[in-house]
Amino acid sequence: RGGLRITGLSKRYKGATDRYAVRELGFTVEQGQVLGLLGPNGAGKTTTLRMLMGLIRPDEGEIRIFGHAVRPGAPVLSRVGAFVEGAGFLPHLSGRANLELYWRSTGRPVGDAHLEEALAIADLGEALDRAVRTYSQGMRQRLAIAQAMLGLPDLLILDEPTNGLDPPQIREMREVLIRYAAAGRTVIVSSHLLSEVEQSCTHLVVMDRGRLVSAGEVGAIV
Ligand code: ADP
Ligand code: ADP
């Protein structure tokens, strides 16, 4: 039943450039692996992750997550959590209140052990009880990532979570990912910097201009 399997995935955006954003991409991620999706800007990372999340439809190919085919419009799998930039928060509420509001909106009770465990992993410290309007950009980002972790999804997808973070925050993010994966959960995290993924990831998929360049264990590639 495993993790995630992508085969023959292609996507071309209509209009302007008419180039493939992703072309004949294939890789697998086993349960418990932390996969770094690495490549320069324009490599096709965001397009790939948006197809994984069911937000856009591939032109060709198949994605299976935990044995289920991913299709746009189908209900998002409850076992998948995702961070994408620009999550909206209510500025006058605390970080905790925002996350609790989101949590209740998914139909689950505040006080649920999953919520507290996810907050412990995210480790936002005293900031959690401050109003979001006092947050730095980096803190907002960390709150959005905590939100993606709330249900402790078996697969966590993070698109460039360190964008806009400073070096200490990047180090903290690495610790957060390692703690998240420690319980055998699967993580996919994209980055354009090798230095950001080589220490927190077990495996790498390297992309360039829509295509797979290499894939394997971190030690075998780096
Ligand atoms: P990355 O995340 O690695 O930077 P993207 O998946 O965002 O790569 O982009 C891959 C290619 O697809 C780029 O050439 C980009 O300009 C193009 N692209 C991305 N999104 C769109 C879109 N909505 N419409 C047209 N072209 C797009
Ligand atoms: P990333 O590097 O994270 O993929 P981008 O800055 O490339 O982010 O893209 C930001 C937004 O602009 C995305 O929604 C993407 O789909 C869209 N976009 C990117 N490239 C193009 C393009 N060539 N034409 C139209 N939309 C694009």
From TrEMBL:
This is CocE/NonD family hydrolase. The chain holds residues 620 to 841 of 927 of the full protein. It comes from the Bacteria. Residues 4-222 form the ABC transporter domain. Belongs to the ABC transporter superfamily. It comes from Kitasatospora nipponensis.
